[in-house]
Amino acid sequence: MIHRILPDRSGFGAKRAASLALVVSLLSFSPQALAQATPQDPPPQMQKSDSADALSGRRLELRGMQDTIEASQEQRAKIEAEVASIRTDRAKLSTALVDLVQTIDGRERKISEAEARLDTLTGSEEAIRRSLASRRQVIAEILAALQRMGRKPPPALLVAPEDMLAAIRTSMMLGSVLPEMRAETEALASDLSDLLQLRRSIATERDSLAGDVEKLGVDRQRLAALIDARQSALAAAEEALGAENARAAELAKQAASLKDLIARMETENAAAARGAEAARKSDEAQKAAQAAVPEAQRKLAMAPFKDPARLAPASAFADTKGLLPLPVAGSLQRGFGAPDGFGGAEKGMLIATRPQAVVASPCDGWAAYAGPYRTYGQLLIINAGQGYYIILAGMDRINVNVGQFILAGEPVAVMGDGSAKTAAAIAIGAAQPILYIEFRKDGAAIDPGPWWAKPELQKVRG
């Protein structure tokens, strides 16, 4: 009979129609409808069972909290034991700091990439959901047609030959409708399959992201302990440190510019003056060594950051072009020489970072200034020798003292959460923390681009 043959020829059977009806009913179901449903009160026995289940759940939750606290205490004890074992060995402490900063930097990059992938997957999921929602009316119309066909099937020719005209009209209608129904069903099945796969990918990314964030927290806790150990080991002149910090703050108020601040610090602050004198002696020693064995000096410049026990730069700053690591992982917002929005050009570069990102020194040098300065936020000036100075600004907390010798890759500061706006962040309207980096040579700003290691520069631009 025609009403039996046509569905089989179209490939659209009763099972597919039932599946389509189930899918549409699920899509059209809304949380509001669930909220409007009025549940009946459970019997007393069920209420007692629910109370017992709730109490059991609370006990399990409490046990989980206790296990978490015990695990945290064990982790803290492990970190403290590790720090105690290397506290007196400066080389080991410096190596641990540099290695841990590299680990944190890589983990922060991985987290940022996972967040970007998660945003893309979530956007794709929303697009498919909107597509399905936009086709609800079409699917409902097709299901209604199927229901009408089920209630009033086409006539059988052998039973009622006089209904030949009605049978032909029914066949024509089915021939035009069923291909459209099949196409809609196949598109819907494809979208639902993609949606299921996206949700699985999103769950996997979220689990991976949560694990990386947890590991990052442990790494930052370990880093804080190592920094405390380093600073306590270096604080031999603890009594003089407070007076020198106060003097640095007073000089910062009086300085009219960064150039003026550097000059005042190195002439009127004892710790900064000692660092400047050490830089001058290091420059003289490097010139003498270069004149004596220029070939050895060139070989040394290819690996200037290998000795963690060094107390002076391993090579002249000018020889480190193309070798310096970026101080933080992030995305470049403005480069040197770009328009600053006020009719001038940028004297440095602006990098958007993650909240609480660790800032590392890009080079060896002495801290010439460490503290707040005008609209720069927390400002760190590093004397790299040969008249070169590295300026890092926009941090939330600085972890080194004025006059302290810093190794390339050592942690020197921590970024904030972006709530405290610096001039650099306001200039570009950034919501996240912004690190400002400026290189100076003999008081004038220079392009830092030639000094960065090329893979590092590609990462920060990504």
From TrEMBL:
InterPro entries: Cell_wall_metabolism_enzyme (IPR050570), Dup_hybrid_motif (IPR011055), M23ase_b-sheet_dom (IPR016047). Keywords: Coiled coil, Hydrolase, Metal-binding, Metalloprotease, Protease, Signal, Zinc. Residues 62-117, 234-268 form a coiled coil. This is M23ase beta-sheet core domain-containing protein. Residues 35-54 are annotated as: Disordered. Residues 346-448 form the M23ase beta-sheet core domain. The lineage of its organism: Bacteria, Pseudomonadati, Pseudomonadota, Alphaproteobacteria, Hyphomicrobiales. It comes from Methylocella tundrae. Pfam families: Peptidase_M23. GO terms for biological process: proteolysis. GO terms for molecular function: metal ion binding; metalloendopeptidase activity. Residues 1-35 form the signal peptide. Its cofactor is Zn(2+).
